[in-house]
Amino acid sequence: MWGFPCVCEDFVLTAAHCWRRNRSITVILGAHDIDEQEMTQQVIPIRRAIPHPYFKRNSFNDIMLLQLEKKAKLNAEVSLLKLPSVHSQVTPGMVCSLAGWGPIDQNISTTELHEVQLEIQKDEERLSHFKRPYDSTTQICEENPKEKKNGLQGDSGSPLVCKNVAQGIVSYGKMEETPPNIYTRTSSFLH
């Protein structure tokens, strides 16, 4: 399971909107329950946050690298997550996974990592549910609004994993926390 995608031993990929100036960030790797002192956990402060230079809150380019103070120890609980190729395609109907520590329902919080399977939707589906601007070259729309599966607040920055590749990063969803969600398309930012 994952919370943040580790792209190399000392860098983690997340959403730019998760960062607040003058606020420290600590990365916890290898955790299942964030309230427990698990032997598998690696708690590492960040050296620097590198948000996309053109990110603006509630906008596009919601992606950021976190450089860790030290390299993570790779093992059975902490491993690198593959990044997509530039030409990688996420297509409607594809089923992907999301794991995070966000609430499991609007009124039920959790400290345990949960995973859900989500279906990529056509861009036209997204247009009927949001008034916000959307760019299919840098964003992905997921999940069938008829189902109750979704990432919620607290899952921001978590990876959308399709066929063992981090294809997206949780960016935003509807205020009432129902599907669909919008993800930053990782392949658009490889440069």
Explain what the structure shows:
The protein is mainly β and about 190 residues long. It has two domains: about 60 residues, Thrombin, subunit H (Beta Barrel); about 100 residues, Trypsin-like serine proteases (Thrombin, subunit H, Beta Barrel), CATH 2.40.10. It is built from one helix and eleven strands, in the order βββββββαββββ. It has a six-stranded antiparallel sheet. The chain has a five-stranded antiparallel sheet with strand order 1-2-5-4-3, with no helix packed on it. The longest helix has 5 residues.
Write the layout of secondary structure elements.
Blueprint: E1 6-8, E2 11-14, E3 26-29, E4 42-51, E5 64-68, E6 95-100, E7 114-119, H1 123-127, E8 139-142, E9 159-162, E10 165-173, E11 181-185
Antiparallel strand pairs: 1-2, 2-5, 3-4, 4-5, 6-7, 6-9, 8-11, 9-10, 10-11
Shape: globular
Structural class label: mainly beta
Helix fraction by DSSP (H/I, runs of at least 4): under 10%
Which class of the largest domain in CATH terms? Mainly Beta
Number of separate structural domains: 2
The overall pLDDT, averaged over residues, is: 81
- Identify low-pLDDT runs: none
Order of helices and strands: EEEEEEEHEEEE
Tally of alpha and pi helices = 1
Distance between the termini: 27 Å
Enter the CATH topology name of the largest domain.
Answer: Thrombin, subunit H
CATH superfamily of the largest domain: Trypsin-like serine proteases
Tell me the radius of gyration: 16 Å
